[in-house]
Design goal:
The chain is built from 1 helix and 14 strands. The protein is mainly beta. The longest helix has 4 residues.
């Protein structure tokens, strides 16, 4: 679902291919169309005064479950509203205005993706108009991932492999 900027790569090309771009599940205009209402997430009754740190964690059996869409994705947004992510059973992709992102095809990356196997890649993309659930600073579970949201960032840990990433506006770390 990531749209990658290819303008820099296309410079100097002299051939064209007839046809129309296809994006399964996308609506008119190239971005997915979803209802604009956001699901509500209840605030946990217990809170921790400790700030999460970007160190590996064992999945917590507690926490709220987030149900996937009909396409198998869960869409979330951080409490600050600065980072949005989409998860499926195989990967997590997040979009933010990162302060320390690498340059991809001459453009600072605004997206990062980690696979269940622990591979990380930076991309330039746009998640489009996705129906996000705003997370509180708490633990959640979705499509085989444990999500630990904190004020300094969000940790995604694959429950089966233990691999994942810690992502915040400062960047991302894979583990």
């Amino acid at each position: 679902m990531w749209l990658v900027a290819a303008g820099a790569a296309a410079a100097g090309c002299s051939t064209t291919t007839d046809g129309a771009a296809r994006c399964p599940g996308c609506g008119p205009g190239g971005e997915p169309s979803f209802p604009s209402s956001k699901p509500t997430v209840s605030t946990p009754t217990t809170t921790s005064s400790a700030t999460p740190t970007p160190s590996p964690m064992v999945p917590n059996p507690g926490g709220q479950n987030l149900a996937p869409s009909d396409t198998g994705y869960v869409y979330i947004e951080t409490k600050s509203g600065q980072t949005r992510c989409q998860l499926n059973s195989q990967s997590v992709g997040c979009e933010s205005n990162f302060t320390n992102a690498p340059v991809v095809n001459g453009i600072p990356a605004n997206g990062v993706e980690v696979t269940a196997g622990g591979s990380l890649r930076w991309i330039v993309g746009n998640l489009g108009d996705i129906p996000t659930t705003t997370l509180d600073y708490a633990t959640y579970h979705a499509v085989g991932w444990t999500i630990a949201a904190g004020s300094d960032g969000t940790r995604f840990t694959n429950d089966g492999t233990g691999h994942g990433m810690f992502v915040g506006t400062q960047g991302a770390e894979v583990f």
